[in-house]
């Protein structure tokens, strides 16, 4: 495999990608469509398949490429954030929420996996404003349908699911926004992630706030690795890369308390919020998402 920020780990059993410029003997190439990627439980505003705008950045001499040298995506899912939108369940809808299982063979392998990787590229509107923060896609899992219960401040059955989305905060500060089984072990491990972490009593833990800065007007590649813990042991791991650089890496976690809790795929979740009006999008904004990829490592 040529160098790709989509796959910061090159040794894996099986995987998929919608990026035409990446190849590997264990990878299946699939189109960026709902059917091919196993999209389900979609609600809120639609994710339209469009040609994204070009975004040359003076920091990168090759206009029309990504920082790892790949061609800029020619197609992408567009998310829209109308002025005043806060989250998909508010009166003023914005963003998009759904789940990605991956192609059938990958989804089947994922159900039996101990460790997996997901990645994607995102381009934020050049006029983007951060306000207080918002959500970005990440991995999720759990026991059966309970895997869908770990977000939005839910408190019931929290020991039977996990959700590891990313977030932007004020000034573009990035973080891992983690819902894990509530335990002192997880609280202590996540709160120690530099440069700053905040344990929210009712919502997810903001881990590593400021570990990276979200860029605007150019493609950025996010990759996330999750390793499940052995049941009864605190040896789970979560790692995040931004443009090929490891920015968050935390171990000693408890992601599950039961062997039936498994990695499920990608929680595509993007919106401004929060719930209060001060989180809302200040103007009509857009973001584009492409090159979705995944790999079963073990």
From TrEMBL:
Segments forming domain Polysaccharide lyase = 75-292
**Pfam families per UniProt:** Polysacc_lyase_14
UniProt superkingdom: Eukaryota
Keyword Metal-binding on this protein? no
Q: Name one GO molecular function term.
A: lyase activity
| Region listing for Disordered, in residue ranges | 48-89
What are the UniProt keywords, alphabetically? Lyase
Give coiled-coil spans as residue ranges: none
**InterPro entries attached to this UniProt entry:** Polysacc_lyase_14
Protein name per UniProt: Polysaccharide lyase family 14 protein
Organism of derivation: Coniophora puteana (strain RWD-64-598)
């Amino acid at each position: 495999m040529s160098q790709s920020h989509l796959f910061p780990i090159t040794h894996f059993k099986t995987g998929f990608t919608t990026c035409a410029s990446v190849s590997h003997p264990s990878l299946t190439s699939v189109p960026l469509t709902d059917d091919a990627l196993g999209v389900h439980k979609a609600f809120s505003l639609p994710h339209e398949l469009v040609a994204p705008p070009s975004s040359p950045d003076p920091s990168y001499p090759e206009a029309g490429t990504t920082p790892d040298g790949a061609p800029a995506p020619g197609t992408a899912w567009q998310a829209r954030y109308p002025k005043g939108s806060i989250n998909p369940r508010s009166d003023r809808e914005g963003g998009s929420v759904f789940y990605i299982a991956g192609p059938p063979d990958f989804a089947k392998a994922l159900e039996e996996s101990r460790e997996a990787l997901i990645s994607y590229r995102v381009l934020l509107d050049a006029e983007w404003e951060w306000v207080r923060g918002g959500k970005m896609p990440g991995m999720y899992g759990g026991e059966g349908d309970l895997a869908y219960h770990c977000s939005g401040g839910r408190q019931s059955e929290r020991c039977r699911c996990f959700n590891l989305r990313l977030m932007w905060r004020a000034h573009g500060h990035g973080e891992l926004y983690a819902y894990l089984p509530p335990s002192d072990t997880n609280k202590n491990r996540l709160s120690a992630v530099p440069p700053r972490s905040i344990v929210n009593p009712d919502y997810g833990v903001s881990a590593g706030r400021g570990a990276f800065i979200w860029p605007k007007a150019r493609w950025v590649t996010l990759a996330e690795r999750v390793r499940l813990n052995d049941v009864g042991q605190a040896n789970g791991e979560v790692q995040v890369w931004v443009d090929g650089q490891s920015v968050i890496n935390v171990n000693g976690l408890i992601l599950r308390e039961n062997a039936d809790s498994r990695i499920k795929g990608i929680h595509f979740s993007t919106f401004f919020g929060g719930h209060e009006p001060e989180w809302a999008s200040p103007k009509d904004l857009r973001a584009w998402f492409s090159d979705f990829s995944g790999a079963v490592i073990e």
